[in-house]
Amino acid sequence: MSNVNDNDLALINKLITEVERSQNERSADDFLALFRPDAVWVTAFGRRFSSKAEISDFARKVLTPDLGDQYARYDVAHVTMLSPDVAAVNVRQRPIHKDGTPIEGELEGSPLYVLVKENGRWMVGAGQNTKVQAAAIDTQQSEIDAREGKK
């Protein structure tokens, strides 16, 4: 973790745990309580929402029992403090069943959250999720290596 003190790291981990819990419990209210009013959110499919009101409208439509047996485990992978009150947080998001077993064939997510500390509380200011496409990453790296003369 880059330049993050233990207290902030604990609070950031707690916030990411709340993201996981609120989504897995399909609690739009709890999920939305983690966002600043001016938050920006981009889904794994590239859909952008530019305010908490827009995020709310979407979240209330998708965080429902209709998701079925589709849950996620969230783990903080890296934190970079951009300033004392702003953190860039990389998260590993693994699709799981309710019993915790992996969902075969589902891609992991790799969210980046920009968190802002206000009155001692970390809030989501911006979020961008991306589906991890391992085969595409490997192909891209092979092309880079080929251009650099590596085999």
From TrEMBL:
Record-linked Pfam families: DUF4440
Membrane-spanning residues: none
Highest taxon above the source species: Bacteria
Domain DUF4440: 12-124
InterPro entries linked to this entry: DUF4440, NTF2-like_dom_sf, Steroid_delta5-4_isomerase
SUPFAM superfamilies with a match to the protein in the record: NTF2-like
Alphabetical list of NCBIfam families matching this protein: SgcJ/EcaC family oxidoreductase
Protein name: Uncharacterized protein (TIGR02246 family)
